[in-house]
Structures are given as C-alpha cells and as structure tokens.
Fold this protein.
Amino acid sequence: MPDTLAGRADFFRREGFMVVRGVLDREELAALDAELDRLARSVDALPTIREGFQLEQRQDAGRGRPAFRKIGGITDLSEPFARLLRHPRLLPLLHAIVGPRVQLYRDVCMMKPARVGREKPWHQDSVYWPWAPMELVSAMTALDDAGPENGCLQVIPRTHLVQRQHYGEELQLDLDDVEQARTRYVPLAAGDTLLFHSLLLHASEPNHSERDRRVCIFSYKPPELEFIGRGNRPEPILVSEITDPRVADF
Ligand SMILES: O=C(O)CCC(=O)C(=O)O
C-alpha cells in the first residue's frame, strides 16, 4: 500500500477498495459497543431515520434481546457514531478521493449476528442508489473482528468501472467462473475500515459462527451528483469541507 495520501487515493481509484488499519482504538470501540447495546434495549422506541432499522428474519432465543439486521440513521441516533463519521484518520483520505466537499448519503450498522446473520448476495450498491454518476465511497468500519467464518465482506477488485445488470427483488447478480476465481475475502480486525467504491462487486456469507460480525457503513458523496430517484432530493448532510486542498495533505 503506498504511503502518501495521493498514492493511496490512486490505489483506491484503480482497485475500487482499500483497507485502513486501526482507525478506532479500544476506547472508541467500547463506546460504540455500549451505544449498540443501548439501542438494542430501546428497540420499541427507536425512531425510523433515513432507511430505518430491520430485525433479523430469524431471531435467536439465546440472545435475550432483539437481533438487528440493520440500524439506519445511526449518526442521528448516537453521538459516538456521529464522531466516527468525521474521524480524523478517515477525513484526509475521503477528501483525497471524494473532493473538497464531502456529504453523507447513508449511515447504517449492519449487524450480521452470530448464528442467525443472513448472507448478502453479490451486488453493486449504486444500482440501488439514486445518484448519478455512480461515484460514491463507502467506509465500512468493523466493530468486531470479521473473517470468513463470521461473514466478512468479499469483493472482486477492479469491478467498479462497469455497471452490471442485476435481477430479483433484492437486486443481485450471479458470478461467472472467471469472476468467482477473482473473489477475495477482506478480513478486518475490530477498528479497521474498508473503503470501497459504490460500483465494486461485493457480498457476504451467512454468519453460522458464535461471534457477531457488526460493522458500521457510511456512504459519502460529492455534492455535484445528480439526484435521479423518485420524490424529493434528500436534504444534503455536510460531513466536511476544505477550502484549501493542501489542508487535506496532513
Ligand atoms: O453487511 C454486509 O455484509 C453487506 C452489506 C452490504 O453489502 C451493503 O450494505 O451494501
């Protein structure tokens, strides 16, 4: 991995993803952990923000609390998650990739709980999303150690340059043999962040293990993207703005 900001941004543009190790320290992880615990205890009072929340289809009687699949609008629900949105380890890279003004489109925790967490088939995020051109960047930060056994993300490098046809209600696609051979697991330690392009092919397997695989995903965009969805364009949420591009080079 190149060690200058510009080199890392070039790597991202070429490969469609990159991993930033050790973004969160143990204290920050503990604060986020406590927040998810608090939200799980107040599920009945949880407001629906942006795409809202979903419980897992299969619940786990042993857990004693509802098992979430997803909690949307997490930065409005929790101050520690709002701080992660603008984490100083990520902002310079985000500016180098997205540009001088960075807005938030999506903020979710994907929980993939132990034993019951479902798979997510192969797809490109931008096919679901109302923005053109399809040039968003997601930052997936692991809140637990994530490996193949508990459903870490899988990607296919360099697939972010071409939009693919998806099918079905969940909008997914099937890989051919060549693509299958190019798939890669991306194991993350708790506190690592995977940045990936909104057209990168990715998926994750079910979690049959005894360990949760919780991640937080923020999807960032430049303000110039055109809204091509139905209804009203969502109010922009500014994450960070720099007036002097050299400031990004710290
Ligand atoms: O949580 C996962 O493993 C997959 C999430 C994902 O693919 C997405 O949110 O687009």
Notes: The longest strand covers residues 101-110. The domain at 5-249 is CATH 2.60.120.620 (Jelly Rolls). Helices lie at 5-15, 26-41, 74-77, 79-85, 91-98, 177-181. Residues 113 and 212 are 4 Å apart (CA to CA).
